[in-house]
Amino acid sequence: MGIPGRTHLRGANLIGAKLQGADFQEADLVKTNLEGADLRGANLKKADLRGSNLSDTHLLEGKGANLQGANLQEANLQGASLVKTNLEQANLEKANLQLANLHLANLKGANLKKANLQVANLEGAHLQGTNLEEADLYGAGLQEANLQEANLRGANLYGADLHKAHLMRADLEKANLEGANLTGVHDLSIEQVSKVKTLYNAKLDEEILIPLREKYPALFKGPEE
Question: What value does the CA radius of gyration of the chain take, rounded to a whole number of Å?
């Protein structure tokens, strides 16, 4: 479906629309309702989707949709299927991605500051250099995700699964890691972990758990201890 760049569909109602392969490059889709729309293989590069509703949309299968550099600030992507979707350099600040499926998605350099990623599937996602400051990742699946040099300052990772995730130079200052699974993680230093808010009930490999408990026992204390 060929739609010329800079298309203006601001505020349009596109609920359940069949838009496979549509060209929305640089399109104005501010506050557009795309709930349940089929956007598989669509080109949304640099599209303006601020405040839009993309809940339960389909952007996967075969070639994921291209949302590179798209503006999705405060957009609703709750429950959206974003497997292998290209969201590199996209602005997702304060976006709702609760329960979204971002398996193997490309989020390199994306802005997810204060985004809601509760129970989202980010397994194997590419999150190098991604800004996740104060993001809510409660119960999120981050197994084998690449979080090298990601900004996780003040992020909520309560109960998150980071098994075998890559954390080289990731900023974990003031991050909440209560109940998180950090077993098998790659390139995680004691210095990085020493700056987190808490490790209460967190799972860690012994080689890092033992020295941490000795040097920073306060990190393992519960809220009432």
Answer: 18
State the pTM of this model: 0.92
- Report how far Cα 135 is from the mean position of its chain's Cα atoms: 8
Report whether 41 contacts 63 (CB < 8 A).
yes
Contacts of 207 (CB under 8 A, 6+ apart): none
**Distance between CA 163 and CA 157 in Å, rounded?**
13
Looking at the chain, the whole-number percentage of residues with pLDDT higher than 90 is 80
SS3 of the chain: helix, strand, coil, percent, to 5: 10, 15, 75
Tens digit of each residue's pLDDT (9 = 90 or more) over 129-188:
999 999 999 999 999 999 999 999 999 999 999 999 999 999 999 999 999 999 999 999
Alpha helices (H) in the chain, listed in sequence order: 190-193, 206-215
Q: What is the pLDDT of residue 93?
A: 98
Instruction: Say how far apart CA 51 and CA 63 lie, in whole Å.
Output: 25
User: Which are the contacts of 73, defined by CB distance < 8 A and separation ≥ 6?
Assistant: 50, 51, 91, 92, 93, 94, 95
Per-residue confidence (pLDDT) for residue 4, from 0 to 100? 43
Q: Which residue has the tokens 């979707």?
A: 85
Please tell me the total number of residues recorded for the chain in this structure.
225
Give the type of residue at 50: R
Task: For residue 81, give the amino acid letter.
Answer: S
Residue 8 pLDDT more than 80?
A: no
Per-residue DSSP letter, 64: P
Q: How far apart are CA 172 and CA 130, in angstroms?
A: 13
Q: How far apart are CA 214 and CA 220, in angstroms?
A: 11
